[in-house]
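Before surveying the methods themselves, let us examine one representative protein, written as a sequence plus integers encoding its fold.
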Amino acid sequence: MSESSRTYLRAAGRDWTLPLYDPFVKLLGGIDALGTLLDQAALQERHRVLDIGCGTGTLATMIKGRHPNVEVVGLDPDPKGLGRARRKAARAALSIQFDQGFGDELPYPEATFDRVFSSFMFHHLPADEKESTLRSVKRVLKPGGSLHLLDFEGPEGTATSLLARVHHSRHPLSDNSGSRVLSLMSQAGFVDPKKIGRKRLLFGHAA
């Protein structure tokens, strides 16, 4: 689907802030969290891996760098973010396929991937796109495959502080509690979804 036919949030929110995205993720503590996510995925040689909402390719290049015999595909709707991802992979001499597209309309056949990753993207999706994205991911996973999702975790109930109430009322995290995400996974057909861990970052918690 063409860029003009759908709206999306760029990796850094604006084109001019895109060069600041990678340093910000590192400052936030996101690199360590991505490493933990990757360790938990238990990748094996010859696995095929998809990173949806790959942005500037940080996780995709990390996967390929650590597992050179794994086939890695990154998907994102933002052509400028993908341009940075391709240049990042080229500088590291890593062979990664980067495609333009949306998570709820994955342009791949059924049962294509052994693992699907999503990092710091899910909370940006409108509520009506979250389940459709999960169903699309389920479709492209091979039997026995798995989704590994890292994101900021929203509140389970009413926020206790005034600052938290104001923040979550204006932010998509209000629909991104752990129980809500796990419920959506179950509705999309995933078997026994679990929250594996929780990590405090510079701004909030990731799960």
Remarks:
- The longest helix spans residues 127-140.
- The helical segments are 21-28, 30-41, 58-66, 79-91, 127-140, 162-169, 178-187.
